[in-house]
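I hope you will forgive my troubling you with a question about protein structure. You will find the record immediately after this paragraph.
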Amino acid sequence: MVPSSGSDSVPFAEPVPLAHGGPIPPLGLGVFRIPDGEPVRQAVSWALEAGYRHVDTAAIYGNEQGVGTAIREWDGARDEVFVTTKLWNEDHGHDETLRAFDDSLGRLGLDEVDLYLVHWPVEGRRRETWRAMERLHEEGRARAIGVSNFMRHHLEALLAHCHTAPAVNQVELHPFNFRTRQPLVEFCRERNIVVEAYSPLTKARRLQDPSLLRVAHEVDRTPAQVLIRFVLEKGTVALPKSGDRDRIQENAQVFDFRLSGDQMRRLDALDEGLTTAWDPTAVP
C-alpha cells in the first residue's frame, strides 16, 4: 500500500520505508481528544483535503468510528491513506488482543489497518500480546505492527523473543526532551525501527518559549511549524494533533523550508526532559 505524496498545493516529502508493511508518510494527523462523530470526521476530512495521507487514532481515543467514516467518504482510494490505531492497556493478552483488534476494525469500518500498535508497555502480558500482534500481521489484517511508549528496556525484552520485530515505536518527542531520548531514537534506528514523534507541539505548553520564537522569526514560520520541522529533521515521523482547519493546513506547510545546523543546536539546547503525557521510563 503506497500512499500518495499529497495534494498539488502541498509539497509533501516521500514516504518512509518500514521493515514490513508501509511505507509510512512522514507527517500524520493525530486525533487524540478530538470527539467522535462530526468533530473528528471533519478534522480528518480537512487533513485529507490539505494533503495528509496518514491518520493516527487509538481505541482509547474513542473516535475510531468518525475517523473511519471520513476515510470511507473521501473521494480518493482507501490504499492512499495510511491508517494507524492502537491496542489499549485493558486488552492485553493473546485472545484479548485479537478481540480488541476486531472491535477496532469494526468501528473503523475497514478491512485492514496499515499499522497496529501496542499503546503502552503493560507489565506482565507483553509476550502473549505480541504473539497476537504477530498473528494479525501474518494474516495481513495489520500490514505493519509496532509499539508505542516503549523505552529501550521494553524493546530489548520484546526483541529477545519476538519472531517479527516492531516496525515502529511511537514516543513523545520535541526539542524539550529530544536530547534525553536521543539514545532511544538511536537504538531504534540501529534496529530498523521507525520512530514516530507524538505531541511534537508539546500540547502547546512551550509554543511561547523565547528561543523557539526567535528561530520561528528567523525562518519566517510559526512556532508550531518549527517544532514539526525539528522532529522531521531528526529523522522521525511527525504526528501533530489538531481539530482546527487552519492549524491542520498550517502544520502541513513544513516541507518547503529547512532549519540550519545552528538553529537545530539551539533547539536541542531546550531539552528539559519534558513529558506532557505519562512517562513510561520507570515501567518494568
Summary: Residues 1-10 have pLDDT under 50 and may be disordered. The first helix runs from residue 38 to 50. The domain at 29-205+235-256 is CATH 3.20.20.100 (TIM Barrel). The chain has one domain: 29-205+235-256.
